[in-house]
Amino acid sequence: MAIILLKNMTKKVNIIEQQQHVLKYAATHGIPIHSTEIETSDASLVLEDRKEFKGFLRSLNNNETLLVYDVWALSTHVDELAKVFECLLKRDITLHVCHTEEIVSSSLSALNALSVLVRIREEGIHPKEQASQGRPKGRMSQSKFDTYRAKVIEYLEEGISVSEIAKLLHVSRSSLKDYINSRGLKELAKTKKKLLYATPTKQPTKEKKPEKECELIAQPPLGGNA
Predict the structure, then answer these.
(1) Of 206, 145, 156, which is closest to residue 186 (Cα–Cα)?
(2) The dihedral formed by the CA atoms of 19, 23, 26 and 27, expressed in degrees to the nearest 10
(3) Which of 43, 73, 180, 195 is 20 to 30 A distant from 161 in Cα terms?
(4) Buried b (16+ CB within 10 A) or exposed e, 9-35
(5) Which sequence spans correspond to the domains of the chain?
(6) pLDDT mean across residues, the chain
(7) Which residues lie across from 5 on neighbouring strands?
(8) pLDDT tens-digit readout, 174-213
(9) How many angstroms separate the CA atoms of 9 and 165, rounded?
(10) What is the pLDDT of residue 139?
(11) Which contacts of 220-225 are long-range, i.e. CB under 8 A and separated by 24 or more positions?
């Protein structure tokens, strides 16, 4: 079952254009639509302050398909998007980002989810974050270290220090450190590990203990608030 989530109260793309694009994407890819939801909370807020959106996430069933025009329909914070992706992966919910034709799914590599987060960070979807780092709005300029990006993230995942990575790559430590900080690669490496952990893995010979339910969508206690 596929659900469309449209984002109201946004200056990016009006809701009619979002709907038209998503429906065209669904038709092109043969995805039958079951329902359409409209989300009106402020996507710039942290998830804990978006009760409506959290309620929507709780309403999703395992193995469903969610279609959005772009990921800013979910959140405009990279770290909050990582939380949403983690929850979707844990519940085998497939996310289609129709505008960019990106898919986040437990059946695909968690690197797909990471690549979406990298794109969002570099396109400056969170202006406050850019301002604090002294970068202008828009896409980051290219760097000679871009060719090492995947390897650097892999090394950071393994807990290798920046000094050791610089030696392995035969590059300047200070320049590499600036690159890692400007691109937020340490945070991306942590997110990648988290998403890989969230992706269900099959273990036919040994029963796997059920993972802890994602805190973002966990049901509140009786009589409590969402």
Answers:
(1) 156
(2) -170
(3) 195
(4) ebeebeeeebeebbbebbeeeebeeee
(5) 2-126, 142-199
(6) 77
(7) 37, 68
(8) 999 988 887 777 876 776 666 656 555 444 444 444 444 5
(9) 44
(10) 43
(11) 225/51
Under 8 Å between Cβ of 49 and 226: no
Residue 99: partners with Cβ closer than 8 Å, 6 or more residues away: 21, 69, 70
Which of 22, 39, 164 minimizes the C-alpha distance to 95? Answer: 22
Cα torsion through 124, 129, 134, 138, rounded to 10:
10
Q: Compute the distance between CA of residue 140 and CA of residue 119 in angstroms, rounded to an integer.
A: 10
Q: How far apart are CA 13 and CA 32, in angstroms?
A: 23
Measured between alpha carbons, how far is 226 from 223 in angstroms, rounded to an integer?
A: 10
Does the global pTM surpass 0.85?
A: no
Higher pLDDT, 186 or 29: 29
Residue 69: C-alpha distances to residues 100, 169, 210, 216, 219 (Å): 8, 39, 32, 22, 27
Q: State mean pLDDT over 205-222.
A: 50
Going from the C-alpha of 158 to that of each of 35, 86, 106, 151, 173, the distances in angstroms are 42, 20, 22, 11, 18
Residue-wise pLDDT for 160-174, tens only, equals 999 999 999 999 999
2-126 under CATH 3.40.190.10, yes or no: no
Instruction: Tell me if 68 sits within 8 A of 41, measured CB to CB.
Output: no
